[in-house]
Design goal:
The protein is α/β, with parallel strands linked by helices. The chain has a single domain (2-193, 195-249), classed as 3-Layer(aba) Sandwich (Rossmann fold), CATH 3.40.50.720. Helices cover 39% and strands 20% of the residues. It has nine helices and twelve strands. The chain has helices spanning 13-22, 44-47, 65-86, 105-118, 134-142, 161-176, 195-205, 223-227, 244-249, and strands spanning 2-6, 26-30, 53-56, 90-96, 124-129, 144-145, 148-152, 155-156, 184-188, 193-194, 211-215, 238-239. The strands form three sheets. Strands 2-1-3-4-5-9-12 form a seven-stranded parallel sheet, with helices on both faces. β1 (2-6), α1 and β2 form a beta-alpha-beta unit. α1 crosses α6 and α5 packs across α7 (195-205). The protein is globular, with a radius of gyration of 18 Å.
């Protein structure tokens, strides 16, 4: 199949492109680095020429609710409009487990993203993933306060981006063979963890002497939800490896 991957240079998109290519598919990378812009529409018609399936793994430049929502909704509409003209028959959209529980912020923007795709003309499958392994290092860096690193109090079933990419490829191939299902798929790692424990393990591996402290920001309306398991997968989720520790050993 000829498959376009929006966000092909991103944290997940690059894995999706690699997995699909390894399985023999023709991959069309969509990103500004390849001269295609999902917001302005530049190069989109040419990129989607002959494409059968679109994977939307694109992420915007902001985590704030309004600009993130504008990015996701605009990108979805542009991909659908150009996709219909090109004869695209299906789409897979990457989202996040638990976003329906958010009261605002980036989670609310992803809800709008899903809605924009579901209301469009191209049949779509939503793949909701848990937080990626790289997320731990990002939060550890952001929370560095000298001898202490502060991270949000969070329960998570963290997952490898490569493993999520393999599930996305499976979904595309199953749907093409007529053996796919419908609705939303959740993908998470093999076991529940706390963000603080993961950050502590990463800090130790990096040789950092900083103590990791989990905090719940009283100003964050979604802090309690994250701390009490609102981001954990449901009972029907696909659980895929490796664990965070196994992944760290390969880095």
């Amino acid at each position: 199949m000829k498959i376009a991957v929006a966000g092909a240079t991103g944290r997940l998109g690059r894995h999706v492109a690699e997995v699909l290519a390894e399985r023999g598919h023709v991959v069309v990378p969509i990103s500004r680095a390849t001269g295609v812009d999902v917001i302005s529409g530049t190069g989109l018609a040419e990129a989607l020429d002959g494409v059968e399936v679109v994977v939307d793994a694109a992420t915007g430049p902001s985590a704030e609710e309004r600009p993130a929502t504008d990015f996701f909704v605009t990108a979805a509409h542009n991909l659908q409009e150009a996709g219909v003209r090109a004869g695209v028959r299906a789409a897979v959209v990457v989202s996040i487990i638990g976003i329906e529980r958010f009261t605002g912020g980036y989670g609310a923007a992803k809800v709008a993203h899903e809605q924009a795709w579901r209301s469009g003309p191209i049949p779509v499958r939503i793949v909701r993933a848990a937080q990626f392994h790289e997320f731990v290092g990002q939060l550890l860096e952001w929370g560095s306060r000298g001898e202490v690193s502060v991270v949000p109090e969070m329960r998570t079933q963290i997952v490898a981006a490569r493993a999520v990419a393999e599930v996305i490829a499976d979904v595309i191939e199953a749907d093409a063979a007529g053996a796919g299902g419908s609705g939303t798929i959740e993908v998470a790692g093999p076991r529940e963890e706390t963000l603080a424990a993961l950050a502590t393990e990463l800090a130790a591996r990096q040789g950092s002497a900083a103590a990791v402290r989990a905090v719940r920001d009283p100003a964050d309306r979604d802090g309690e939800m994250q701390a009490t398991g609102g981001l954990l997968p449901g009972p029907g989720a696909l659980l895929v490896g490796p664990t965070f520790r196994e992944w760290l050993a390969t880095q």
